[in-house]
Automatic annotation (TrEMBL):
<dbReference type="InterPro" id="IPR008972">
    <property type="entry name" value="Cupredoxin"/>
</dbReference>
<dbReference type="InterPro" id="IPR001117">
    <property type="entry name" value="Cu-oxidase_2nd"/>
</dbReference>
<feature type="signal peptide">
    <location>
        <begin position="1"/>
        <end position="24"/>
    </location>
</feature>
<dbReference type="InterPro" id="IPR011706">
    <property type="entry name" value="Cu-oxidase_C"/>
</dbReference>
<protein>
    <submittedName>
        <fullName>Multicopper oxidase</fullName>
    </submittedName>
</protein>
<dbReference type="Pfam" id="PF07731">
    <property type="entry name" value="Cu-oxidase_2"/>
</dbReference>
<feature type="domain" description="Plastocyanin-like">
    <location>
        <begin position="449"/>
        <end position="569"/>
    </location>
</feature>
<dbReference type="InterPro" id="IPR011707">
    <property type="entry name" value="Cu-oxidase-like_N"/>
</dbReference>
<dbReference type="InterPro" id="IPR033138">
    <property type="entry name" value="Cu_oxidase_CS"/>
</dbReference>
<keyword id="KW-0560">Oxidoreductase</keyword>
<feature type="domain" description="Plastocyanin-like">
    <location>
        <begin position="83"/>
        <end position="197"/>
    </location>
</feature>
<dbReference type="InterPro" id="IPR045087">
    <property type="entry name" value="Cu-oxidase_fam"/>
</dbReference>
<feature type="domain" description="Plastocyanin-like">
    <location>
        <begin position="207"/>
        <end position="356"/>
    </location>
</feature>
<keyword id="KW-0479">Metal-binding</keyword>
<dbReference type="InterPro" id="IPR002355">
    <property type="entry name" value="Cu_oxidase_Cu_BS"/>
</dbReference>
<dbReference type="Pfam" id="PF00394">
    <property type="entry name" value="Cu-oxidase"/>
</dbReference>
<dbReference type="GO" id="GO:0016491">
    <property type="term" value="F:oxidoreductase activity"/>
</dbReference>
Length: 614
């Protein structure tokens, strides 16, 4: 570990931490069924026993400022307890898979270079995991939080301490469960890495983190089986409401009789002071829905796109697809008053027909909040919405997404080229499935890919349904050429990397290398592939690990729209997965059931065995 990191020596801070790490301490011991789970501490700092893991809570409707910057990176200890609670995000009461009792989960904050040591205690009564969306996990692939790929799920009543450095990353991220559709039921929250050298730091006074999501009154344990019946002819489940940081509204006359429901949920209020400037960090954490974010009478200055500073440009409305993040600066320079904040689920991007689960949803697609100036009355705004200044169901226009300085490292010889086709099909039971290069992804929950590779399992022998692509050029440029052979748009996300977008094409617009954006590409980690269109991206193969590449529409993930990238397996295989991560695969009845194929968990009977919500 130590040796390897020094050898590649790309990340100064990381190797610094690890070289001191030889005196690393063992922070804790957990006991499972009488066996001990050994927990390694990979940190240079001994945790102060008087200051244990921080059981954080976050009020997303209070303005924040960045953490104090420190001379040297520090380790930040957070404790996330996963537990089911009854909540009424949009007025309708249901069970929510909460983090520290809240939804969205509390904000995780660090400064560039800091180490995050996050103790996740699973009290869900279901297996769980947490993925840190957008974090590269250099040297810590096993903390990427993907059951079947980088770990086995955390059994109920067990804690796993995730321990990774932010290295050179900064910007707006989020975390969420990667175990089935669990994040859709609530396990999601913001993750911010502040940057001392942020060129925009002086341009705003406060910030707000806005976690957008769609919301369903049924749990995913109920919803998933409904679309897994043979011959299902509908689309993805239609939500019941959009939520702005966990708050929405619902017309309860449409709720089933006997449900606890309140139609008069107050709109969430964001207070601003006149003539101050606010950075809004906007995260789309939805299961499915493309959102449009805007604030009446206040234009948005775009400054960050998924950890990349962009050239400042002004927009009225921000289209943001699932998994994506943006920072915008809002100038509170309008007359003192109340203005609508709009987190609108874009109906135009949500296919429906009367075979679709919840097709007749009473949803109001217009998620609303209030931007309230100090000194304004506590009244509802009557402000007017801006007209659209974007192309619906597509990513923000390139002219608003260009890096502050052109990123040129993707312009060079391509050492690995991969052709990918995305399609839908039917299995032998006429159940819908999603196919990436003709394979519907099935993870082996009880034996994660990283475990296999590190015990010298040859990558080429991985099961076909794990849909693996192998990259062996250390420091090379990989190019993925994706053809979306179906009518749906898909927001694709890659773990472990940002990628450069060479080409995005609509139906019939075939990629042509002469049109590739080699010199000044958009760089991000989640991109929308247009229905029947094309995408060409490049990334640098410099991060040994198993990285998921998948559509972020959770319903499509559950149909198998996932690929796994096996990056530099020859380096990865010399790594040692920490014992506590390995132990997750051994200590639990669920994981011992080797005959259980996860795809079949769609079947309601099997879901019923692993989940307690039915
Ligand atoms: Cu946001 Cu595979 O994740
Ligand atoms: Cu998709």
């Amino acid at each position: 570990m130590n040796f390897y990191l020094k050898r590649i020596s790309v990340l100064f801070i990381l190797s610094l931490l690890f070289s001191i790490g030889s005196s690393a301490i063992e922070t804790n011991i957990y006991t499972v069924n009488g066996n001990s789970l050994h927990l390694k501490g990979y940190t240079n700092e001994i945790q102060n026993p008087n200051k244990p893991y921080d059981d954080i809570k976050t009020d997303y409707f209070k303005p924040i400022t960045h953490l104090n910057f420190t001379d040297k990176p520090v380790t930040r200890y957070y404790h996330l307890t996963l537990k089911k609670v009854q909540m009424s995000p949009d007025g309708f009461e249901r069970t929510v898979w909460s983090v520290n009792g809240q939804h969205p989960g509390p904000l995780i904050q660090a400064n560039k270079g800091d180490r995050l040591v996050i103790n996740v205690t699973n009290n869900f009564d279901d297996p769980a995991s947490v993925h840190w969306h957008g974090m590269f996990q250099h040297g810590t692939n096993w903390y990427d939080g993907v059951p079947g790929q980088t770990q086995c799920p955390i059994p109920n009543d067990i804690s796993l301490v995730y321990n990774f450095s932010t290295t050179d990353q900064y910007g707006t991220y989020w975390y969420h469960s990667h175990f089935f559709a669990q994040y859709v039921d609530g396990l999601r929250g913001g993750l911010i890495v502040y940057d001392q050298d942020d060129p925009y730091l002086k341009q705003y006074d406060y910030e707000y983190v806005v976690v957008l999501s769609d919301w369903h009154h049924n749990t995913t344990g109920v919803l998933l089986p409904l679309s897994n019946v043979p011959g299902y002819a509908g689309f993805r489940p239609i939500p019941d409401s959009p939520l702005i940081s966990g708050v929405g509204r619902y017309n309860c006359t449409a709720a089933p009789p006997g449900s606890k429901c309140n139609s008069n949920q107050p709109l969430p209020v964001y207070k601003v002071e006149k003539n101050k400037k606010y950075r809004f960090r906007i995260i789309n954490s939805a299961a499915d829905g493309a959102f449009v974010f805007s604030i009446d009478q206040h234009k948005l200055k775009v400054i960050e796109l998924e950890g990349i500073y962009v050239k400042p440009t002004i927009i009225k409305k921000l289209p943001i697809n699932v998994g994506q993040r943006y920072s915008v600066i809002v100038d509170a320079n309008q007359p003192i008053g109340n203005y609508f904040i709009r987190g609108t689920l874009d109906k135009r991007c949500t296919p429906n027909n009367n075979a679709t689960t919840n097709f007749n949803s009473a949803i109001d697609w217009n998620g609303l909040g209030i931007l309230r100036y100090e000194g304004a009355e506590n009244t509802k705004p009557n402000s007017k919405e801006f007209n659209d200044d974007f192309k619906p169901c597509r990513d923000l226009n390139k002219k608003h997404s260009l890096p502050l300085k052109p990123i040129t490292k993707y312009d060079g010889h391509v050492s690995d080229f991969v052709n990918i086709t995305i399609a839908f099909g039917r299995d032998s039971n006429q159940r819908l499935e999603a196919l990436v290069n003709n394979v519907s992804f099935v993870p082996q929950m009880n034996d994660a890919t990283v475990n296999k590779i590190t015990r010298d399992f040859a990558p080429k022998d991985l099961p076909k349904e794990e849909n693996s692509v192998i990259f062996n050029h250390n420091g090379g440029i990989a190019e993925l050429y994706v053809w979306n052979n179906n009518t749906a748009d898909h927001p694709f996300h890659m773990h472990g990397h940002s990628f450069a977008i060479m080409f995005v094409g609509e139906k019939g617009q075939l990629p042509n290398e002469s049109k590739y954006d080699k010199r000044n590409p958009i760089v991000r980690d989640t991109v929308t592939i247009p229905g029947n269109g094309f995408l060409v991206i490049r990334f640098i193969t410099d991060n040994p690990g198993i990285w998921a590449f998948h559509c972020h529409i959770e319903w499509h993930v559950e149909l198998g729209m996932v690929m796994q990238l096996i990056e530099l397996p020859n380096i990865l295989k010399n790594e040692t997965v920490p014992d506590d991560v390995i132990s997750l695969c051994l200590e639990n009845e669920f994981q011992k059931r080797k005959t259980l194929t996860p795809r079949r968990m769609f079947n309601s009977i099997i879901i019923n065995e692993i989940r307690s919500d039915m």
